[in-house]
Amino acid sequence: MTFPFSGAAVKRMLVTGVVLPFGLLVAAGQAQADSQWGSGKNLYDKVCGHCHKPEVGVGPVLEGRGLPEAYIKAIVRNGFRAMPAFPASYVDDESLTQVAEYLSSLPAPAAQP
Questions:
Q1: Domain locations in the chain?
Q2: Any long-range contacts for 43-52 (C-beta under 8 Å, 24+ apart)?
Q3: Which residues are catalytic?
Q4: How many CA within 13 A on the CB side of residue 13?
Q5: pLDDT one-digit tens code per residue, 20-67
Q6: Which of 50, 53, 66, 88 gives a 20 to 30 Å CA spacing to 22?
Q7: What does pLDDT average to over the chain?
């Protein structure tokens, strides 16, 4: 009895049909894991801004203050006074880096009389 495919052909089909798609899934998952919020602006708008936007007036304004990334990470991870701590499972480190960069890129809000 002869088989229509040689060993090399079966290996190529296996790599193409199973290994390659699996590799693409892993790569897509890693890209998503790099920043779970997508951008610093998105994280700020959906989480931080509920208290820290100038028009809200709950927490201190963060925009345009040039806060160091390490400071933002320490406060977010540990909390401070009325601000709760946010674990890495909710806000990953890459997203905190992005939000620090985003906040540093914003101008300081105009002083109010």
A1: 7-35, 40-105
A2: 43/91, 43/95, 43/98, 43/99, 43/102, 44/99, 44/102, 44/103, 47/86, 47/91, 48/99, 51/83
A3: 82-83
A4: 6
A5: 454 444 444 444 445 688 999 999 999 999 999 989 989 999 998 889
A6: 88
A7: 80
